[in-house]
Amino acid sequence: MATRIYVPSDTSARSLGADAVATAIEREAMARKIDLELVRNGSRGLFWLEPLLEVETPAGRVAYGPVRAEDVGELFETGLCSGESRHALFQGRPEDIPFLRKQQRLTFSRVGLGDPLSLGNYVELAGFRGLSRALTMAGEDIVRWVTESGLRGRGGAAFPTGIKWQTVLDTPSPQKYVVCNADEGDSGTFADRLVMECDPYLLIEGMIIAGVAVGATQGYIYLRSEYPLALRVMNEAIARAYAAGYLGEGIRGTSYRFDLEVRLGAGAYICGEETALLESLEGKRGMVRVKPPLPAVKGLFGQPTVVNNVLSLAAVPFILDRGPAAYADSGMGRSRGTLPVQLAGNIARGGLVELAFGATLRELLYDFGGGSHSGRPLRAVQVGGPLGAYLPESQWDTPLDYEAFAAMGAMLGHGGIVAFDDTVDLRQQARFAMEFCAVESCGKCTPCRIGSTRGVEVIDQLATAADREANLTLLQELCETMTDGSLCAMGGMTPYPVLSALRHFPEDFTVGGEPCGSREPV
Amino acid sequence: MPGATAPQADVIQSAIATHGQRPGALLPILHAIQDGLGYIPGDAIAAIAQALNQSRAEVAGVLSFYHHFRTRPPGNAVVQICRAEACQAVGARQLESHARQRLGTDYHATSQEARISLEPVYCLGNCACGPSVRIGDEVYGRVSPAVFDALLEALDSDVVVVQ
Ligand SMILES: Cc1cc2nc3c(=O)[nH]c(=O)nc-3n(C[C@H](O)[C@H](O)[C@H](O)COP(=O)(O)O)c2cc1C
Ligand code: SF4
Ligand code: FES
Question: Which residue, among A278, A272, A295, A319, has the nearest Cα to A414 in the 3D structure?
Answer without folding.
Answer: A272
